[in-house]
Amino acid sequence: MKLVLENITKRFDDKTIIENANFTFEKGKIYGLLGRNGAGKTTLFNCISRNLILDEGMIATENDGQLNKNYDNTEIGFVYTQPHLPAFMTAYEFIKFFMEINSGRIEHPKTPEEYLDSVGIEREDQHRLLKDFSHGMQNKVQMLASLMVKPPVLLLDEPLTSFDVVAAHEMKELILQMKSESIVIFSTHILQLAQDLCDEIVLLHHRKLNQVDSSRIHDKDFENEIIDLLSDKETLDTPEAKEV
Asked: Sorted alphabetically, which InterPro entries does this protein's record hold (predicted)?
């Protein structure tokens, strides 16, 4: 499976956020999306998930060479930076409800307790209201819901930033497991995280998407090169800068 972005443009009033950008994401890889604050990473995710309408261009899924421009938004799992959870439910109630409404999409279902155990939510916390959870605990529950249904495309907007060391390690392992099931794309400001998890790194800079040479990800000078690219006002507008 592939996710194909072709000549996409998104504007807000007179400000162009993404302009004539192209990229193809493939199943079996984890992509790190890097860009400066305000570059449009969350906007791009909202376009892919159909929360925003493109001004120009096309986003489609591709299976066996067949493009689907009208894919259902249920094919996209989107884990937001700020958790979107029903505050009036307990973690147990939410996961049980989520399982019921997605009964046909969850393979080999477990119990709500087992799912919550798997992301480190203690049994005594599983019956607390979600509104009383810390930001990190809410993010665990939100990510768990997406992982349970194994969506064809999984978008992670600034994952792991609110997790402690142990929880971050647990989430990394879950993300790596999703690699075989989904196209995984996550945005981050933490280059080390992208280096640890990613098969490919994509820069969103000057409204374009540019792939970094994956063979360079673990080079000792990689961080400085990425900083130079994202700091330079002209570099990524030239064909020579398509690969680091």
From this structure: AAA+_ATPase, ABC_transporter-like_ATP-bd, ABC_transporter-like_CS, ABC_Transporter_VariousFunc, P-loop_NTPase
